[in-house]
Amino acid sequence: MISEGSTRICCLWWGGAVGYKKPLPAACEHSRPPALKREIIMKPLSLCMLLFASVLATSLEAADKGPADERPPQVKTLQPGVTLSLVAEQPQLATPTGVDVDEQGRIWVVATHTHFRPDDYVGPEHDEILVFSDLNQAGRAQKRQVFYNATDATMDLELGPDGWVYLAERDRILRIKDTNGDGKADVEENIAVLESEADYPHNGLEGLAWDNAGKLIFAIGENFAKEWTLTGTDGTKITGAGKGGIFRCTADGKQLKRIAEGFWNPFGICVRKDGEIFAAENDPGERPPCRVLHIVEGGDYGYERGYGSEAHHPFVAWNGELRGTLPMIHPSGEAPCGIAPLGRGLLVPSWGDHSVDFYPLTPKGASYTSKPMTIVKGGRYFRPSCIAADPKNNQKVMTWYLCDWVDGRYQAHGYGRVWKLEIDLGKADWVGPLELEPPTKEAKLAADLRSGHATQSLKELLKLAQNEDPFVARAALVAMSHKASEWTPTEVMKWSPAERVQAVLALKLAQAEPKTWIPVLLKDKNADVQFETIRWISDAGLKAFLPDVEKVLAQSDLDYQRFEAAIAAWNTLNGKALDGVRNPEMLLARVKDKQSAPQIRAYALRMLPTQSRSAPKEGKQVVTQFPKGLTLEMLEELLAVNDELLSLEAVRTLAGNPIASQKILAQLAADPKQDAVLRAEAIAGLAPLAEQQAGLLLKLAGDPKRVVREETLRGLRSIQLTDKQKAKLKEIADEFPDSKDAFQAALHPGALKTDRPALTETGAWLKAIDAVGGPADVESGRRLFHHARLTNCAHCHRHSGRGNVVGPDLSSLGDRQDRAWLLRSILEPSREMAPEYQPRTIVLTDGRTFTGIRLRSYVKETIRDAHGQNKTFDRDDVEAIVESPVSFMPQGLVHALTDRELRDLIAFLESNSRPQAQKTD
């Protein structure tokens, strides 16, 4: 018999809506589902039904038929060897949040009646722990019994040793037991108790599993960033706030320990038979996608709810973007609630995508990567959540049981199903080998480093902490933290810059004395050391260092990354952490402060939230709006300061609203006394109004300053020129042979599509741009990146604090140092599209279509469109949701650019806004 270890875990969701037409025998009326309408239909309980509900075990076939034909699941299997059969459904169970299977084949289910319980809900006062058994030939359960019904907000169930049944309520882990053999639990014991003012049902305690040493694993969600204290039975206490965590304790609640942190809502956890732990991250908030994670001791997975809900924060990572944080294995479907091992892979139900997916795991250094496949797909009323393996699985057919939430509403709604998922291994060649691969050398190294018995020297650990494998680097950091108490500031300041950066991370992890270290580290000349020290201050909430953070904000050599970090820390230390970096009043005050250094005022201006979050009217271009308090007059005052950086930021802000700003932009563009780069920036800002400004642009096409001239020609390229205008340009072109390609592109933009390599010929394109004479112009590339007509890159991408967050932030793209890969991504944007950025097209019942990155799915669908705007649709108005194989990034973008412009754009993307620590030795 093949054992899959602790193969189950629970459910909860952030998804969309679903149903089933075939009626099922009813066991009890008390959880009757709503009918066709959205509202719960009130059904009076008869005395007969009340008595019936108290019966321990019942024959399901003999019960009345319930109205189960309103929510068709529309399920189909997509891979060979997969079958799905119904075990039980409403009204025998409702809104299930946990499942497990015992050695007798009995299926244990949590049916919650308290999860956002509507006022008119008809059902038991508390949640039920149900046991289904005696499956007939069709797979339908013939018996249903209520084992327990005294808990609320019950989020998971896990069968334990000695007849104990473990439950996760929102605010405690408990176990219950039947000691007299009557089929009802009569003993209840707390295992871990959570104290917090938060009471939201499914971001507290959750996710039960057993490790291979017989210890209980469980999780906590982000708890709305409210402070919490978790207490085990031996008095061990662990505290936290905005970081979800995963914990371990003995079966009786002793030796409580935090394993890992940095989660939003790790609702599903499983432990493989080799001891590896995996989790399904249930919700990404404004940071799609949800995550499939490899959990390791001491791991930090980057998320911190306490920093607010914005899609960007300098101290929050979602895929290992920050030093010391760990990436996901792969994005999951929307709202995964369970996870279970299968051979060398993982089964993950997706509540929001109405699917069950298989993630074959391929070793990647000390962790894994995956290319998932969907094995089961349902319709709107199929919402698989929890999953548990039959402990009697054999080498021919393997069995799991799935819970199905059915309806997309969060409120208790009376619907629910249990499915039996079978995989015939003789037919399912897609499963691959069942035996697990031996650990890689990197995995062995990381495990040794995490063990607490690492033999590497400090010098070796410092090097390993900079390893390209984030799991090796994190493990080395954990090992270093055990030695941090031996260090002195004098010693550490002699280390290389890269080593000092790692020292900050290790000291923070070791909870070193802040007063000893932080004043010294903040004086470090290395930008990365300062950044990580500011991050330490903010993460730890060290309010005593607020004056030090304010001193950082006054530094004359401050770069944007440290300014943004210091603003975030300032907000945190002033009790405004949820503002993230968006504190408009404080930022506006910085902009207005004439005593502040111009560059600080420039950074504050850049960080002001200028874009409206409401979607633009159909067919209209997004135009950013000035934040409250920022006026044209104020921006003119900033220009009058005559500081290069401040003026550029002012012009870029003006360019965000060109209709309101066109007079100022036109004056700047036409003024030969202004700096040429500033004039070029103003001209780029006028690009959306090129038709109205054609007269000015034709005049500036002959400007003696090359940067002004060529930016003007880009603007003219985007409009239809008259014959007279073309003749004028041809006349001017003869005077400036160094701008020949720019004039040709303005006169004949269609020619940029001819006599050039195919988009698949990256090597030929590389040769073409390498053949361009002269040095690359990074600032020209920057303007191209933000150009409203030619590229529109900033509509989807953020760079150095400007742009949108539809696609990935490209600020540190140059770290990859792979020009061929970068160029290929521009030439063929849909070729290697990261799953988390795959667009989905929503087709409405009225025929309209909208495309965006999916954010949330429940009774409403929310996407973020190509302009960075969130759009929400009622699920009843949605006809279909289709994954798009086409990237938001337009195919053929290079056909709008000359070879020189393409070279400049790549040079900009390859440039770093600040040097990385590894490069500062």
TrEMBL record:
It comes from Gimesia panareensis. Keywords: Heme, Iron, Metal-binding. The keyword Iron applies. InterPro entries: 6-blade_b-propeller_TolB-like, ARM-type_fold, Cyt_c-like_dom, Cyt_c-like_dom_sf, DUF7133, Haem-bd_dom_put, Membrane-bound_put_N, Quinoprot_gluc/sorb_DH_b-prop. GO terms for molecular function: electron transfer activity; heme binding; metal ion binding. This is Cytochrome c. Pfam families: Cytochrom_C, DUF7133. It comes from the Bacteria. Gene3D superfamilies: Cytochrome c-like domain, TolB, C-terminal domain. Residues 776-913 form the Cytochrome c domain.
